[in-house]
Amino acid sequence: MRFATFFFSAAALLTSVAGQTSTLCNPLNATCPNDPAFGMSHNFVFNTSSTVTTSFNITAGALNYTADGAAFTVAKRWDSPTIQSKFNIMFGSVSVVMKAASGTGIVSSIVLESDDLDEIDWEFMGGNSTHAESNYFGKGNTTSYDRAIYYPVSSDVRENFHNYTVDWTADRLDWLIDSTVVRTLHYADANEGRTYPQTPMSVRLGVWAAGDSSLNKWTIQWAGGVTDYSKGPYNMYVQSAEIKDYGSGSEYEWTDNTGSWQSIKAIPMLNGNSGNSTAMNAIIKAETPTLSTAEKFKALPKSSKVAVYAGSGAAGAVILAALLFYCLRQRRSGGLERDAYNANVEKAREEIYKDQMELREKGYGGDSVHGDGFPASPSTPKFPPNVSTSAANSPPMNYEGSQNVPTSPGFHLPNKHTSGGYQRF
Ligand SMILES: *[C@@H]1O[C@H](CO)[C@@H](O)[C@H](O)[C@H]1NC(C)=O
Ligand SMILES: *[C@@H]1O[C@H](CO)[C@@H](O)[C@H](O)[C@H]1NC(C)=O
Ligand SMILES: *[C@@H]1O[C@H](CO)[C@@H](O)[C@H](O)[C@H]1NC(C)=O
Ligand SMILES: *[C@@H]1O[C@H](CO)[C@@H](O)[C@H](O)[C@H]1NC(C)=O
Ligand SMILES: *[C@@H]1O[C@H](CO)[C@@H](O)[C@H](O)[C@H]1NC(C)=O
Ligand SMILES: *[C@@H]1O[C@H](CO)[C@@H](O)[C@H](O)[C@H]1NC(C)=O
Ligand SMILES: *[C@@H]1O[C@H](CO)[C@@H](O)[C@H](O)[C@H]1NC(C)=O
Ligand SMILES: *[C@@H]1O[C@H](CO)[C@@H](O)[C@H](O)[C@H]1NC(C)=O
């Protein structure tokens, strides 16, 4: 199911959701503002509200934070908690460690979507414990039958955490389950690239009732049946999301209306520190004060440490006093913690780029995929509903020997783009 389709179908029901779609600017038809870039790599652990809200907008509903991570709950009709990254990646990877929600007709989803409706998906039907659906769309083209493919997962997707990845470059798009590539789509295999996802994507996670009895019968059938809310609440749990932007800019600019990846220009981050991506600055700001007490202690000036050691009888009070002293001192001296943290960020970034280079060295390959789709828009059913599951009869045909296939020569950025801090992997 296209995420946008969800919005369209939900729009009739949820004015707040409808409001979001109406503000979208489609770069194929208009000159749109640049997309904020991620330009970095980060593992978001979904254990506190601030981790999520620093980098994602909660576009519908609310989340709960539990020992199992963030709970996205459908407790009653119209619940559809959803978050959307405040940033975009222009080629990159997303690995979400999650448990899908149970419940017939309840769909848990990981969606990458761009302004011109390129889309990459993982979706989970709450009535189906065994399979995950992979899907993609290019420029909102819903006319083909060959995009949705279901793959078996090693254990119940609702009971167990699994790691669902999409790894996306200009040449190929891989879907992985627990680090095993299950599907590869090459650029040329999507209408000679015309419907290959290739524009800056935000990351959306959410759960909704595609089995609501008010929805189109094809949608309900795709979702696995009518949702019984009395058997809920239905929870999707997200433990973490590791997101890597293979580009390294601060913004992505749509230089024309083609929606081709060659038309996207990365605006470089400036060396003077003021040009970091907004997302990166937000993460740095949010995480800087969260050093552990041990780290704070380590960073204390020597004189304070001596005081702490000496005052064993009243250690707690002394530590507090020392920390207070340290904090005051830090405010004056400009922030040792921040420097230490920034050094760590720098180091992590170096490692990420090293990893990316290694990935590129290794190369990826694979065959194209064929499967069956499903009715793309609830309002205009075009296909018989039963086609959507037949792909399950022919799953991993598509990746055998993928390691032996050399990386395709692919596409090269024009020189003017390489200066934009934009790298192709
Ligand atoms: C873009 O413009 C064309 C022609 O005016 C129109 O048919 C199409 O629906 C528009 N697409 C979007 C997404 O606005
Ligand atoms: C959240 O996870 C991070 C990273 O694993 C950890 O450092 C932090 O202590 C956790 N916070 C809570 C409140 O569990
Ligand atoms: C969060 O959990 C509490 C306690 O279980 C529940 O009452 C509340 O409705 C939950 N909130 C959401 C948004 O699901
Ligand atoms: C997130 O919310 C803010 C504030 O409403 C808004 O300015 C921004 O455009 C939103 N970002 C996305 C990607 O929706
Ligand atoms: C949309 O997809 C169909 C089926 O793959 C294809 O025949 C058609 O050319 C595509 N449209 C565009 C504009 O690429
Ligand atoms: C999820 O899988 C990706 C791809 O193999 C891997 O890079 C990442 O480390 C995995 N995440 C976890 C938490 O295992
Ligand atoms: C930009 O990021 C670097 C680390 O990558 C950091 O040292 C610097 O303080 C950041 N700039 C701002 C304005 O936060
Ligand atoms: C789960 O989905 C797969 C693939 O569509 C299908 O073969 C299987 O029968 C489904 N299981 C249930 C319980 O619906």
Low-confidence blocks of residues: 7-23, 301-335, 348-425
Share of helical residues = 10-25%
Please trace the helix and strand order, writing H or E for each element. HHEEHEEEEEEEEEEEEEHEEEHHHHHH
Which whole number gives the mean pLDDT? 72
**Number of strand elements:** 18
Overall 3D form: globular
Bound molecules: 2-acetamido-2-deoxy-beta-D-glucopyranose
Question: What this model shows, in words?
Answer:
The protein is globular and about 50 Å long. A hairpin with a 5-residue loop joins strand 9 and strand 10. The protein is α+β, with helices and mostly antiparallel strands and 425 residues long. It is 25% helix and 27% strand. The longest helix has 27 residues. The protein has 2 domains: 279 residues, Sandwich (Jelly Rolls), CATH 2.60.120; 122 residues, no CATH class. It is built from 10 helices and 18 strands. Strands 2, 4, 5, 7, 12, 13, 14 and 16 form an 8-stranded antiparallel beta sheet that branches. Helix 3 runs antiparallel to helix 5. The structure holds 2-acetamido-2-deoxy-beta-D-glucopyranose (8 copies). The site of one 2-acetamido-2-deoxy-beta-D-glucopyranose has 4 residues, from loops.
